[in-house]
Amino acid sequence: MGGKTTSMSGKNKTELYQRIRRILESARTSVARSVNTTQVVANWLIGREIVEEEQRGKRRARYGEELLKDLSDRLTKDREKGWSVRNLEYCRNFYVEYPLLIDIQKSNAVRSIFTIPRTVNGHIPNALRSESKSAPWEGPARGKGDSLGSESWQPGHLHPNLSWTHYRTLLRVEKAEARAFYEIEALRNNWSTRELERQINSLLYERLALSKDKKGLMRLATKGQAIQRPVDVFKDPVVMEFLGLPESPRLVESDLEQALINNLQAFLLELGKGFAFVSRQERITLDGDHFYIDLVFYHTILKCFVLIDLKVGKLTHQNLGQLQLYVNYYDRERRTRGDNPTLGLILCTDKNDAVVHYTLGPDQAKKIFASRYKLYLPTEAELQAELRRELRQLVRSSRNGRKSY
């Protein structure tokens, strides 16, 4: 009696292949995270050894320099690549600046990889994810669109999605609260090390912190950027060095717009979370007259359209009036149920804040914003000067009993 044989259908074969692919991709991701985390922990432990040895040398600067030079020479001689004095300094600073990096829990994982004779508070540091238990940064479920995992993770603690290069870049940020902010945002937005470095260089934290009170600054440092109001979305200045355009009086708005479209991914990174591109040069017709909106976005957090108008010169009240027209039209003709009021943003090379204030008035100032843009990455001193100017304007408005604009 011969048994009846059946062959797999094409659909079943495809599903089997997809399941195997998911297993392989998951395995590669797990291995990459494990290797990355091992490197990060190793560098932290190396930093600890250096610091404790320096302390035995009573922190004499000359002793520390000689120690790092000797270590670098020995490691290089043993064909260990990449251990320059500078990299050893990074390890030392890493241990000093991240004293709570390794979560203090018992784990066999770290003991299987490192031989650590000392303990911390009587426990072996938990460096890597154990096979039988979830890692401390992983809860039972992750929040939607949020790579931070459970609320148990805090800035300064180990996270598998941050590489050694991420941590090395973060060490350049001197202010602890700013470093914590960048750490949170790098994880939440899956920034590459290049993107993280760019955001630090453009003083993103300082630009967002400009209009925040003490509680707002604390939230930035502990929770990252929280978008609850339109004012939380827009930055001033907007830095667009990625366009590669020279600052020239011959620059025209069409060239600026085309450059933004060509570099849309970088522009979205600068605009911040929640922006989705909709259209460019969108035409609206009013009794036979045609008007064109430069760029239209939708903000997925605020649930509203955002209209952006580009100006290559100084902002005028006519520019503001034109954007008011676009915003009012969108509110009446394009908004659908569930959409919040439309927002408008003018990007200009210069502006008179008093003109903005008196043209818009208190109600429109909640919906229409004006920001300067920079076509190059300013130095820290230049950006600080720009931020101080904006801060003086905010203080002046407050003293006059007006809302900031």
Q: Could you name the key traits of this structure?
A:
405 residues, alpha/beta, Trna Endonuclease, Chain: A, domain 1, 3 domains, 6-stranded mixed beta sheet, globular, disordered C terminus
CATH topology of the largest domain: Trna Endonuclease, Chain: A, domain 1
Strand content: 5-15%
The main β sheet shows up as:
6 strands, mixed
**Span from first to last CA?**
88 Å
- The SSE order reads HHHHHHHHHEHHEEEHEHEH
Q: Which CATH class of the largest domain is shown?
A: Alpha Beta
State the CATH architecture of the largest domain.
3-Layer(aba) Sandwich
Radius of gyration, in angstroms, nearest whole number: 27 Å
With helices defined by DSSP (H or I, 4 residues minimum), what is the helix count? 14
Mind explaining what this structure looks like?
The chain is of the alpha/beta class and 405 residues long. It has three domains: 19-127, no CATH class; 147-226, no CATH class; 228-399, Trna Endonuclease, Chain: A, domain 1 (3-Layer(aba) Sandwich), CATH 3.40.1350.10. The chain is built from 14 helices and six strands. Helix 5 runs parallel beside helix 7. Mean pLDDT is 78; it is low at 103-146 and 401-405.
